[in-house]
Amino acid sequence: MISEAVVRWLLEPENPSLRYRTMVELLGKSPDDPEAVECKRQIAESIPVKGLLSEMHPDGYWLQKRPRTGKMLDDGVEYGAFGTTHYCLSYLAELGTDRTNAQVAKAAERYLNLQKEDGDFYQHFSCLLGLNIRTFTMLGYKSDSRVKKA
What is the distance between the terminal CA atoms of the chain, rounded to a whole angstrom? Predict the structure, then answer.
């Protein structure tokens, strides 16, 4: 059982992402509940989401400012770097954004279209594939044929 004090802390209005996930995932509130809907709307205006989206290239990807791996496979796809497209999409999903945000949808579509014929994205790294499946499911692509293929 989670203490009432912890739940109150998780529901503080300063962090709409945490508040939304607490309401829906921990307390079982419907995502359609008016309070949850309002909280979800606030996520797009939060500092972390606005910051990530402000760094996105207009074509729908992110580039690591200081490359870690040097393995550039395509614009915005540098595996092993934590500031590129697949990680930024993952962060946005964890923060509570989804494909209803036009910028998120643009980046997600671009990335999903890089998928290989066999459903993989890069060298059959199970951790990357698992992260991608989780990310795209959270972003609202659970029924998408590309996610199912992965």
Answer: 36
Distance (Å) of CA 96 to CA 64, 113, 115: 22, 22, 24
Q: What's the pTM?
A: 0.84
Specify the residue for token string 């579509």: 109
The domain limits of the chain are 1-43, 46-149
Give per-residue pLDDT as tens, 122-148: 777 677 788 889 999 999 999 998 989
8-state DSSP, 107:
H
The answer to whether 42 and 16 are in contact (CB under 8 A) is: yes
Cα separation, 64 vs 81, in Å, equals 7
Q: What is the distance, to the nearest Å, from the Cα of residue 57 to the centroid of all Cα atoms in its chain?
A: 16
Tokens linked to 145:
């044929």
